[in-house]
C-alpha cells in the first residue's frame, strides 16, 4: 500500500504541475511567458526525474528526492509574481495545494520530511503572494485552506493505514486458526495411513507368527525386513507421480501354500500422483492377503483401467465370500487399509461380497479436480497442500478489501465533513449577498450535510448503504450541484463564492467508493457539465477565464477523480495482490508446520515401537529369533495385542477404554484363548495416556495366556481399575520388565500390582482421578 501511495503522489503532482502550469502560461501576458517558462520548465524536469526515480529508486538518495520535491514548490511559487493576476494565484494555489497533499503520501513513512515540505510549500505560497501584491497584506484564507488540506491528507492516510493493519492482524489471526486446523487434519490423515501401514505389515506378520507352529516359515525373514523398512519410512512424504500399472505388477502373491495367483489385466498407462497410487497398491496388497487367509481359493483376477483423469482398479475372487456388514468395527483390514486409506487421498473403495458368491473389491480415484474437494485428509500428497486454498485466498482478499473500503470511506467522509463545515461554510456565509436566491444555496448546504449524516450513520454501524438510499443521496448531491451552479453568477463559478464545487465530489466519492471508478467519473462529468452549462449560457468566457476555471476543475475534480482511481487500485489491485501474498505465505507456513509435526510424530511412533516391536522384526528378519520358539510366538502375540489396542484408540465410541480392551481380547481369542470380560460401575472419561497405561498390562497377560483369562473393569467415582486373571500365563521376567519399560513412556500416575499363585497370574492396574478444585471426592 505504501508503494502504491508513493506512486500515486508522484504521478498526481507531476500531472497537475504539467496541466495547471500550461493553463497558467495561457492566462499570462505574452511578455511574461519566457520568464514563467524558465521557472515552470525546471519544475517539470524535477517532476520527470522524480518519476524516473520510481523505476530506479536505488540510484537516487533520499536527500536528492526531497530536494526535487522542494524544487517543484519553490519554482512554482516564484512563478506567481511573474505571471500575475488571478490566473497565477489559482495556478500556484492548485499546484502547491496538490503538492503538499501528495507529500503526505510520498513521504508517508517519514512524516518529518513530509511536514517540512508542507511547511516549505506554505512559506513559498505566502512569499509568492507577497511578491505579486507588494504593499498588501497576504491573504490568509488560501494559507488556512492549505493547512487544512495537509491535515486532512495526513489524517486520511493514518485512518487507511490503521484499518489496513487491523485487516492484516485479523487475517493473520484467521490464518493461524486455519493453520492449526490444517495441521491437525494432516496429522490425522497421516496417522490413519500409519496405522493402516502398521496393520498391513508388522501387525499382520506378528499375528501370523503368534498363531502357531507347523508351517513353512521361509517367507518370514524377507517379510519381517520389509515390515521394518515400511515402519521406518516417513509416511505421508511421498512426492511426484507413479505408474499405477507398474505398481500393480509388483503386488506380492505370497509364498508356498499361501500364494494367490493373480490374473492381471491393465489397460494403458496409469500415471497418477504417488499418494493415491501407493494407497491403491497397499490396498490391493491387503486385499490379496485377505484372499489367501479367508477366501479358500488360490486365484484372483486383478483389472485396472483409466477413467477420465483418474483410474479404476478391481480385484475379484470366486471364494467363499462373506457379509461385509457383519465384520466388526475393530477389524481394520477393510475399514482402515482398504476403504479408509482411499478416503484419505480423495478416492473411494467399495467391497461387495455375499456368502458363497466370492468377493469383489473396487478402488476408484477420481482425478485431481475431484480429489481436491474430498473430505478430511484428502489433500495429503507429499507435504500436504492446505485444503480450500482458493477459498481461503478469496476470504483473505474479501477481508482486506472490506477493511480498505471501510478506511477509505471513513477518510473521504472526514474530508467531506471537515471541508464542508470549515471552508465551504465560511464561503456560504461570506457571500450570501451574491447568491440569487440565497435560501437555495443554504438549502443545498443543509441537503449535502443530511446526505453525509445518512451515509455516515450506515458506515459507523458497519453496514453498507442500501441501493435505494444511495440512489436518493446521489440524486440529492447532483441536485445540489445544479442548484449552486444556476443560483450563482457565472463569473463567480469555481471562484471564492462557489462553496459547492470543491466539496460535492467528495460526497459522491463517499457514496460510490465500493463501485468501479467509471461510475464516479460519470458523476464528476455530470457535475462539471452542469457548471460548464451555467457558464456558457451567459456567454463564452475569455481564454484567461477558461484557463482559471480549468485549473480549478483540475485541482478539485481532477484530484477527486485521481483519489477514486487510487481507491479502485487499492480495492481491486492491491487487496487481491496482498491476499495472494498472504495466502501464499500462509500456505508455506502451513506446509512447514505440517512437515515438522509429521516428522516429529513419526519419530515418536518409531520410538514407541523401538523397545518392543522393532527387536522382534529385526530378530525374525535376520534369523536370530525363530518362529518355532514358543517364547517368540508369545512375544509376537503380546505385540499384536498392543497394536490392535493402538488401532482402536481413535475410534469414536462411548467407552474408549472398553473398546481398546475388547481389541486386545479379540487378538487373544484368535489364539484360542477363552476370555470373559466384565464391567462394573458407570463408565467415565479417561485420558488417552491413562488408557494406554491401564490396558497395556492386560495386553501383555492376554498375549501370554494359553487357555482362559478373565478381564474386569471397575468404575468408581474416584478410581478406575482394570484387572486380568490368567489361569495359565507363560510367565517371564524379561517380558515383565519390557512391559514396565513400555509403561514409562508417559508420567501418568497408574499403579500396577502383579500377583502370582501357582500357574495363575493376577495383574491389577488402577488410576485415581485428580480432584477438581473445591470438589471433595471422599
From TrEMBL:
<feature type="transmembrane region" description="Helical">
    <location>
        <begin position="404"/>
        <end position="422"/>
    </location>
</feature>
<keyword id="KW-0472">Membrane</keyword>
<dbReference type="InterPro" id="IPR050482">
    <property type="entry name" value="Sensor_HK_TwoCompSys"/>
</dbReference>
<keyword id="KW-0808">Transferase</keyword>
<feature type="transmembrane region" description="Helical">
    <location>
        <begin position="472"/>
        <end position="490"/>
    </location>
</feature>
<feature type="transmembrane region" description="Helical">
    <location>
        <begin position="10"/>
        <end position="27"/>
    </location>
</feature>
<feature type="transmembrane region" description="Helical">
    <location>
        <begin position="496"/>
        <end position="513"/>
    </location>
</feature>
<feature type="domain" description="Histidine kinase/HSP90-like ATPase">
    <location>
        <begin position="283"/>
        <end position="364"/>
    </location>
</feature>
<keyword id="KW-0812">Transmembrane</keyword>
<protein>
    <recommendedName>
        <fullName>Histidine kinase/HSP90-like ATPase domain-containing protein</fullName>
    </recommendedName>
</protein>
<feature type="transmembrane region" description="Helical">
    <location>
        <begin position="59"/>
        <end position="82"/>
    </location>
</feature>
<keyword id="KW-0902">Two-component regulatory system</keyword>
<feature type="transmembrane region" description="Helical">
    <location>
        <begin position="143"/>
        <end position="164"/>
    </location>
</feature>
<feature type="transmembrane region" description="Helical">
    <location>
        <begin position="33"/>
        <end position="52"/>
    </location>
</feature>
<feature type="transmembrane region" description="Helical">
    <location>
        <begin position="112"/>
        <end position="131"/>
    </location>
</feature>
<feature type="transmembrane region" description="Helical">
    <location>
        <begin position="88"/>
        <end position="105"/>
    </location>
</feature>
<dbReference type="InterPro" id="IPR003594">
    <property type="entry name" value="HATPase_dom"/>
</dbReference>
<keyword id="KW-1133">Transmembrane helix</keyword>
<dbReference type="Pfam" id="PF02518">
    <property type="entry name" value="HATPase_c"/>
</dbReference>
<feature type="transmembrane region" description="Helical">
    <location>
        <begin position="442"/>
        <end position="460"/>
    </location>
</feature>
<feature type="transmembrane region" description="Helical">
    <location>
        <begin position="520"/>
        <end position="540"/>
    </location>
</feature>
<keyword id="KW-0418">Kinase</keyword>
<dbReference type="InterPro" id="IPR036890">
    <property type="entry name" value="HATPase_C_sf"/>
</dbReference>
Amino acid at each position: 500500500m505504501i508503494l502504491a501511495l508513493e506512486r500515486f503522489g508522484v504521478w498526481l503532482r507531476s500531472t497537475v504541475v504539467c496541466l495547471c502550469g500550461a493553463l497558467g502560461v495561457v492566462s499570462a501576458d505574452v511578455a511574461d511567458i519566457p520568464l514563467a517558462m524558465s521557472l515552470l520548465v525546471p519544475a517539470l524536469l524535477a517532476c520527470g526525474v522524480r518519476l524516473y526515480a520510481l523505476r530506479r529508486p536505488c540510484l537516487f538518495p533520499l536527500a536528492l528526492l526531497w530536494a526535487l520535491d522542494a524544487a517543484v514548490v519553490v519554482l512554482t511559487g516564484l512563478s506567481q509574481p511573474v505571471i500575475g493576476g488571478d490566473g497565477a494565484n489559482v495556478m500556484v494555489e492548485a499546484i502547491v495545494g496538490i503538492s503538499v497533499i501528495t507529500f503526505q503520501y510520498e513521504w508517508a513513512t517519514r512524516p518529518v520530511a513530509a511536514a517540512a515540505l508542507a511547511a516549505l510549500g506554505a512559506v513559498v505560497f505566502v512569499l509568492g503572494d507577497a511578491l505579486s501584491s507588494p504593499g498588501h497584506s497576504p491573504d490568509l484564507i488560501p494559507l488556512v485552506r492549505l493547512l487544512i488540506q495537509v491535515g486532512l491528507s495526513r489524517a486520511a492516510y493514518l485512518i487507511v493505514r490503521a484499518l489496513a493493519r487491523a485487516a492484516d492482524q485479523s487475517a493473520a489471526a484467521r490464518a493461524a486458526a486455519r493453520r492449526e486446523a490444517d495441521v491437525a487434519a494432516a496429522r490425522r490423515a497421516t496417522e490413519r495411513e500409519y496405522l493402516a501401514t502398521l496393520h498391513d505389515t508388522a501387525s499382520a506378520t506378528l499375528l501370523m507368527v503368534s498363531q502357531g507352529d507347523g508351517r513353512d516359515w521361509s517367507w518370514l525373514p524377507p517379510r519381517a525386513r520389509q515390515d521394518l523398512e515400511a515402519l521406518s519410512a516417513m509416511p505421508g512424504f511421498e512426492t511426484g507421480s507413479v505408474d499405477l500399472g507398474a505398481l500393480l505388477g509388483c503386488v506380492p502373491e505370497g509364498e508356498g501354500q499361501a500364494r494367490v495367483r493373480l490374473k492381471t489385466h491393465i489397460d494403458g498407462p496409469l500415471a497418477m500422483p504417488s499418494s493415491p497410487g501407493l494407497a491403491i497398491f497397499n490396498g490391493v496388497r491387503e486385499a490379496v492377503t485377505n484372499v489367501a487367509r479367508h477366501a479358500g481359493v488360490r486365484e484372483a483376477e486383478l483389472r485396472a483401467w483409466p477413467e477420465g483423469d483418474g483410474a479404476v482398479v478391481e480385484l475379484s475372487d470366486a471364494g467363499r465370500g462373506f457379509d461385509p456388514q457383519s465384520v466388526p468395527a475393530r477389524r481394520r483390514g477393510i475399514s482402515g487399509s482398504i476403504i479408509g486409506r482411499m478416503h484419505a487421498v480423495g478416492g473411494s473403495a467399495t467391497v461387495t461380497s455375499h456368502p458363497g458368491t466370492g468377493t469383489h473389491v473396487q478402488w476408484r480415484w477420481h482425478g485431481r479436480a475431484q480429489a481436491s474437494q474430498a473430505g478430511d485428509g484428502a489433500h495429503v500428497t507429499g507435504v500436504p497442500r492446505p485444503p480450500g486454498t482458493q477459498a481461503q485466498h478469496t476470504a483473505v482478499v474479501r477481508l482486506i478489501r472490506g477493511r480498505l473500503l471501510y478506511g477509505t470511506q471513513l477518510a473521504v467522509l472526514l474530508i467531506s465533513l471537515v471541508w464542508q463545515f470549515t471552508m465551504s461554510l465560511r464561503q456560504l456565509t461570506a457571500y450570501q449577498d451574491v447568491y440569487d436566491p440565497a435560501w437555495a444555496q443554504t438549502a443545498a448546504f443543509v441537503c449535502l450535510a443530511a446526505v453525509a449524516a445518512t451515509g455516515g450513520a450506515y458506515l459507523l454501524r458497519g453496514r453498507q448503504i442500501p441501493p435505494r438510499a444511495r440512489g436518493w443521496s446521489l440524486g440529492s448531491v447532483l441536485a445540489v450541484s445544479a442548484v449552486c451552479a444556476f443560483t450563482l453568477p457565472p463569473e463567480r463559478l469555481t471562484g471564492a463564492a462557489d462553496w459547492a464545487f470543491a466539496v460535492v465530489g467528495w460526497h459522491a466519492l463517499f457514496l460510490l467508493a465500493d463501485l468501479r471508478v467509471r461510475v464516479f467519473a460519470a458523476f464528476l462529468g455530470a457535475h462539471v457539465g452542469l457548471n460548464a452549462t451555467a457558464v456558457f449560457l451567459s456567454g463564452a468566457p475569455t481564454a484567461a477565464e477558461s484557463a482559471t476555471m480549468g485549473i480549478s476543475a483540475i485541482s478539485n475534480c481532477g484530484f477527486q477523480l485521481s483519489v477514486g482511481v487510487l481507491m479502485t487500485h487499492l480495492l481491486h489491485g492491491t487487496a487481491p495482490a496482498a491476499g495472494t501474498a498472504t495466502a501464499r505465505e500462509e500456505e508455506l507456513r502451513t506446509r512447514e508446520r505440517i512437515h515438522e509435526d509429521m516428522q516429529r510424530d513419526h519419530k515418536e511412533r518409531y520410538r514407541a515401537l523401538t523397545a518392543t516391536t522393532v527387536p522382534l522384526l529385526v530378530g525374525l528378519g535376520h534369523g536370530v529369533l525363530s518362529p518355532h520358539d514358543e517364547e517368540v510366538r508369545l512375544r509376537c502375540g503380546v505385540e499384536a495385542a498392543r497394536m490392535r489396542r493402538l488401532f482402536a484408540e481413535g475410534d469414536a465410541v462411548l467407552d474408549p477404554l472398553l473398546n481398546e480392551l475388547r481389541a486386545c481380547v479379540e487378538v487373544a481369542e484368535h489364539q484360542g484363548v477363552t476370555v470373559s470380560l466384565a464391567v462394573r460401575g458407570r463408565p467415565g472419561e479417561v485420558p488417552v495416556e491413562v488408557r494406554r497405561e491401564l490396558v497395556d498390562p492386560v495386553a501383555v497377560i492376554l498375549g501370554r495366556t494359553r487357555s482362559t483369562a478373565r478381564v474386569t473393569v471397575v468404575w468408581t467415582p474416584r478410581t478406575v481399575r482394570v484387572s486380568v486373571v490368567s489361569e495359565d500365563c507363560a510367565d517371564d521376567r524379561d517380558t515383565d520388565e519390557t512391559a514396565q519399560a513400555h509403561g514409562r513412556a508417559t508420567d501418568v500416575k497408574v499403579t500396577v500390582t502383579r500377583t502370582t499363585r501357582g500357574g495363575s497370574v493376577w495383574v491389577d492396574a488402577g488410576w485415581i482421578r485428580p480432584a477438581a478444585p473445591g470438589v471433595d471426592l471422599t
